[in-house]
Amino acid sequence: MKTDIADLAVNLLSPEERALLHRLGEREARMDAPLTDMELRAGLCSALAEMSEAMRALLGFMARHNFVTLLPDEAFAAYAQLMDRIGTAATQATCVVERSRSLDRETALANLPEGSKTCQ
After folding, report:
1. Residue-wise pLDDT tens digits, 93-108
2. Other C-beta atoms within 10 Å of 94: how many?
3. DSSP annotation string for the chain
4. 98 vs 104: CA distance, rounded Å
5. How far apart are CA 31 and CA 49, in angstroms?
6. In a 10 Å sphere around its CB, with 0-12 CB exposed, 13-18 middle and 19+ buried, how is residue 22 labelled?
7. What angle, 0 to 180 degrees and rounded to 10, lies between the N-to-C axes of helices 76-110 and 37-64?
8. pTM, full prediction
């Protein structure tokens, strides 16, 4: 019964939303394996990027269904504050992801065997 309802609900999603659900399911299947520090950071970066994509999909979904126009006037201030918080969090997450990926690249380069490094 639950599977039938879930299958019906999936048919209402856009192709992007379906792809997002598929990727989340794949990630959940990999969560049991032990991780190194670099793998952990890479996983966190991936999760932050996925969360950002999910938020964009949610906002697009809300826009397609005219969510904002259905809000009562007194709710607009709270909605604006929430959107500001989401924007700030997304910006901070993007910075952290870039710093982490940069650190991973630098660490990988520092750990290369001496003979494989090229001088520039």
Report:
1. 878 878 877 887 887 7
2. 14
3. -HHHHHHHHHTTS-HHHHHHHHHHHHHHHHTTS---HHHHHHHHHHHHHHHHHHHHHHHHHHHHTTHHHHS-GGGHHHHHHHHHHHHHHHHHHHHHHHHHHHHHHHHHHHTS-GGG----
4. 10
5. 17
6. exposed
7. 150
8. 0.48
